[in-house]
Design goal:
Elements (H helix, E strand, L loop, with lengths): L1 H33 L2 E19 L2 E12 L4 E6 L1 H5 L6 E7 L2 E7 L2
Antiparallel strand pairs: 1-2, 1-4, 2-3, 4-5
Length: about 110
């Protein structure tokens, strides 16, 4: 009987965590979609990666770029690896973003 109660609560906690994560992701997505698209001149301050090695066959890499916009505010975005490879520290150009979502960076010549 005790074992069944423990299993029941473990399943309830698991589903509560999944539902919480889904709601939080939906709220972030909705907030980004309701935010205005911003185009501003920016300079690339820094680039970094975060490698998550869960186990040997499963490794993920997150790519981050920090921009300094015209009003001297610094903003860091989690971006795709293909975008990360096309951006260099010190680049100056037009940054487009919406909320906390990176959209594009066009380097000036």
């Amino acid at each position: 009987m005790f074992f069944a109660i423990v299993i029941f609560f473990a399943i309830v906690i698991f589903f509560a965590i999944v539902i919480f994560m889904f709601i939080r992701s939906f709220m972030r997505w909705n907030k980004n979609n309701n935010s205005p698209r911003v185009n501003t001149r920016a300079r690339v301050l820094a680039k970094r990666t975060n490698i998550n090695n869960f186990n040997k066959p499963l490794t993920t890499t997150n790519y981050f770029v920090t921009f300094e916009v015209e009003n001297k505010e610094r903003i860091e975005f989690n971006i795709l690896g293909s975008d990360y490879g096309m951006i260099a520290e010190g680049d100056v150009g037009m940054l487009e973003y919406q909320g906390i979502r990176f959209l594009d960076f066009k380097r000036e010549n």
